[in-house]
Amino acid sequence: MNILYAVFSGTGNTLRVCRRSAELLRESGHAAEVYSIKKGAPMPAIEAYEALVVAYPVHGFNAPTPVLKFLRSLPAAAGKRAYLLRTSGEPSKLNNASGVTPKRILKKKGYDVRGEFTYVMPYNILFRHSDGMVARMWQAAERRIEEDVQTVARGGGQLIKVDPVRRAAAFAVRIEHPAMPLLGRGFRTTDDCVGCGLCATDCPQGNITMKDHRPVFGADCVGCMGCAFLCPKDAVRISLLNGWRVNGAYSFEGEPAADDEVCRYLRKMYLRYFHENE
Length: 278
Ligand SMILES: Cc1cc2nc3c(=O)[nH]c(=O)nc-3n(C[C@H](O)[C@H](O)[C@H](O)COP(=O)(O)O)c2cc1C
Ligand code: SF4
Ligand code: SF4
Description:
By secondary structure, the chain is α/β, with parallel strands linked by helices. The protein folds into two domains: 2-168, Rossmann fold; 180-244, Alpha-Beta Plaits, CATH 3.30.70.20. Helices cover 35% and strands 17% of the residues. The two termini are 29 Å apart. The structure holds flavin mononucleotide (FMN) and iron/sulfur cluster (2 copies). The site of flavin mononucleotide has 25 residues, from helix 1 and strand 4.
């Protein structure tokens, strides 16, 4: 079995899940590659693979715009197996609405959409999860990945139904997507910026250019938070969203949080998700 993971990832969570999935598949004798969805990157040779997994972080209960663009540029592929894989900061069912449009596009192109995989990973906006929460999330993700790669390898899978109320709620939040290029134009750096250029190199939209050793933000931002999250000097200010800025990569190692250390925000939901995967 030869599987392609096509992944959009702003701050590395979705990429981490895909890399681990591909690694496990290779260990069990399959071929698996990870392709990054980035503006201007050449399309992968889909015909060379038996199954395609399209992976993305949930942005405002929807799939990020570059993922929809990637799906629309895919060649028609009658009967080719396809899956969706997504990560989200919380285990809310609303996030499942983000699969509706991707499934529709894939089916229209003739793909045999077999299943959807969901993982809770730490927030890269809104607030920073504790190290213990992150370790517990990764423990749960690793267990799910083990099962999910077997599902892909045997061609199984299950689609997630989304009720009309959740669809409508997610549709309403889609306003965030056209707003992001406008908000992104207002991103600025503080004097802590050392001009290392990391943000410009990593931006999946190629939206940052370096001028006189300082980043200049263009009009193509999709709000992935890569620049603000990964800046080694925490020097990026994200205009109106700045109060929700999260900076610094998570470690994923360490002692998983016990039940009573799980964050107060949506505690019951997180606990249900953790217990399901133990
Ligand atoms: C603009 C934006 C919107 C987000 N919206 C949601 C959301 O609606 N629901 C959710 O659970 N997480 C949301 N998140 C959190 C991410 O989905 C989560 O942190 C994800 O694992 C990030 O993946 P990445 O590191 O591959 O970019 C959002 C993050 C960003 C940057
Ligand atoms: S990553 Fe941070 S320090 Fe480096 S150029 Fe970008 S803003 Fe400046
Ligand atoms: S400018 Fe920053 S938030 Fe916007 S797409 Fe690039 S890395 Fe992501």
